[in-house]
Every structure is written in C-alpha cells, then in structure tokens.
C-alpha cells in the first residue's frame, strides 16, 4: 500500500495505530503539509516500509528512535521540520538505505561513523542542523555515496583525507562549519 498526501493543507498527527491497521504500508509520503507532533512508536510496525517522507511539516521529537526496526527502508526524508536528538548508531543496521535527508532541523550530536558502512547509501543530506564534532573518517570508506551535504552545522577539525577517496562522490557540501587545517589533495594526478 502507498499513501501519497503531499502538498495539501492537512494537519494533526500521525495515528499511532497506522501501521497496526496497515502493516503492509510501503510508502508514506506526507511532505509539505501542516502535520505536527512526534512520530508515533507504532511506525516501527510498518515492516514493509520503503519510503518515509515527512519533509516540510512541523514534526518534533526524535524521529530516528522509532524507525530502527524498519529494515526495508530505502528512503528516509524528514527535512524541514523541528526534529531534535541524535542519529543513533543503530542507523548502521539499515542496510537497504539509499537516501538519508535530515536537513533543516535541529538534530545534534556527532555524525555516526556507521553511515560510511551502509552498502548502498547514495545521498546523505545533513545540512542546517546542530551537528558537532569531527567528520568521521569512516564516511570516506563508502563506495556508494555520491552526494554528501553537511554544511551549516558546528562541525570542527580537519577534513579527513578519506573523503576525497570516495569513488562515487560527485557533490560535497561542507561550507559554514568550523573546519580547520589544510584541504587534502583530491582529483586525478
């Protein structure tokens, strides 16, 4: 089952029993509405979920605590909300994840090294949050990430040289952070 309700004037919260009533729900796309509140814990019972797109609403809380059991999830899009909290290390268990869009929220904490170990992750969009600490060098071990956006955070330290060894990387956004040191060599010699 797929539920597309994008670009309406819908409001309220997601019913906690949505996945109990619809356990085969594969795509929940609610982008650009007026939904609010936290993502209910019941969302973790949508074991067939492929896409969860909640971008452009007024959701709060930590979405990521409730989705760790969604092993089939390929697209997690929660940009432009009021989400807070950290990206838990358990995100490294989401081996089917292709796209991770968390931009324009209030997520904080460190970027987990596990992102570099997701085998088919293509796009990581973490811009305009409150992430701190250094860029984990493990992200540079990814053989699949093509787009990596981490600008407008509070990231410190040097750019790991491993970032420029990512074979699929085509777009890298690191502006408006607190990076220091030299830019590692990159490009063909």
Keywords summarizing the entry:
Leucine-rich repeat, LRR (right-handed beta-alpha superhelix); 189 residues; 16 strands; globular; eight-stranded parallel sheet; mainly beta; single chain
What report would you give on this structure?
This protein has 189 residues and is mainly beta. The strands form two sheets. Strands 1-3-5-7-9-11-13-15 form an eight-stranded parallel beta sheet, with no helix packed on it. Strands 2-4-6-8-10-12-14-16 form an eight-stranded parallel beta sheet, with no helix packed on it. The chain has one helix and 16 strands. 31% of the residues are buried. It has one domain: Leucine-rich repeat, LRR (right-handed beta-alpha superhelix), CATH 3.80.10.10. It is 2% helix and 28% strand. The protein is globular, with a radius of gyration of 17 Å. It is found in: Cell membrane.
Report Rg: 17 Å
Shape: globular
- N to C succession of SSEs: EEHEEEEEEEEEEEEEE
Quickly count the helices.
1
CATH-defined topology = Leucine-rich repeat, LRR (right-handed beta-alpha superhelix)
Query: Structural class given helices, strands, pairing?
Result: mainly beta
Strand segment count = 16
Give the overall average pLDDT: 93
Total of domains: 1
Q: Which CATH architecture?
A: Alpha-Beta Horseshoe
CATH superfamily descriptor: Ribonuclease Inhibitor
Q: Please give the share of residues in helix.
A: under 10%
Biggest sheet details: 8 strands, parallel
Low-confidence blocks of residues: none
Strand order of the largest sheet: 1-3-5-7-9-11-13-15
Q: Distance between the terminal alpha carbons, to the nearest Å?
A: 50 Å
- Please write the CATH class name: Alpha Beta
Strand proportion, as a percent range, falls in 25-35%
